[in-house]
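User: Hi! I'm working on a homework problem where we have to compare a predicted structure to a textbook description. Could you give me the structure for the chain below?
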Amino acid sequence: MFEGLTEKLQKVLRRLDSRGTITEKDLDEALREVRLALLEADVHFRVVRQFIQRLRERALGAQVLQSLTPMQQVIDIVNQELVQILGGSQSQLQRAKESSTVVMLVGLKGSGKTTTAAKLALHLQRGGERSLLVAADPQRVAAAEQLEALGKQLNIPVYSEDGEARPLQICEHALKEARRLGITTVIVDTVGYLQMDKESLADVIELRRRLSPTEVLMVADAMTGQEAVRAAEEFHEALGLTGLILTKLDGDARGGAALSIRAVTGVPIKFVGVGEKADALEPFYPDRLASRILGMGDVLTLVERAKATVSEKEIEELGTRARRGAITLEDFLGQLQQVRKMGPLNQLVAMIPGLSGVAGRLEEVDESHFTHIEAIVYSMTPQERRYPDIIDASRRRRIARGSGTTPADVNRLLKQYREAKKIMQMVASGRGPRIAPGAPWPR
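Assistant: Happy to help. Predicted structure tokens:
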């Protein structure tokens, strides 16, 4: 996510830091490089101009040049301005006061609107809400079938009618069904558009007027950059958007849409899609994304993902076994599987302060690496998984044949397991390495 921009910003800041004191000339040179980095990242030129102007004014106004810690102040100012561009604070989903909350999703064809509808429903369901998905796109072939398949997979009810029904009629009937089922949130998947002239948008404008939804959220593909920003402007002018959902943010190496769309449209980003899986939709936090752009990590999101994947009871039990030195290969495999559920490895590493540069190099670590580990462990007997020390040369050859790997692969896994076991035992007993408060993260 935004690898190129993060790398360039860090390079500029490191160069400033190496000079000790910062002159006005140094600051102007750095801001010129930041400006180019943002423009190359496809950030809207007006947003870039305002951002650079604000940075310069604040840096000079805060007397950064005379400060004893100029770099810390510069980083703090850049971080604060990024947060402001991204919206300032989290914008939560609005709720209807009496009847069901109605969320109307709009967007261009191919933006991922239908899958996002299902992801949003799952996110709300995990928060204790009951959602109803509504297939109100009779124009697209198999749109209702796609939504029904997603609903069945996630155990979320879907309301649809045959291809002759009008979107407004479908939505009116869906609302009656929602009242009958005691649904708290109705999510309407509307028609996707190729163009956005008033004639094309007439139906969805009328649907918005008659339906009076609590939220009108545009689903925008972050990877389309300024095209997403232009589409958001036009949808907002026609419909009065209340929020945005950026999809494919995990695949956006530039960041133009995310850094422009809020500032240009004035519409808050409410959710972001960070992967293809059904649970890869997260509430949007401007401060967290700003921190990640600067390579400072995102520990809060990492902790939230971990809590959603592993229960406190499981953590406590694992800690007890680790202190006794009783971690088995079954525990080792279980932990790897939990990590996989949290998301791609490069995403997780990028959330750890100081390790954003490492994340890009982990793209090569694909699913096959974890699949080989699983195959090796599953080729062992229950006794071998619990007592790996009994695995001799003949057992290694048998395990390798059964898993389609080599004895060297089995040896490598056993070494990784022993190293992980040692570290887990040290951490669980309080003897692990510590980072002093306030100490810088390694570069």
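For your comparison, note the following. The CA atoms of residues 5 and 37 lie 6 Å apart. The chain has three domains: 3-85, 101-294, 301-428. Good luck with the assignment!
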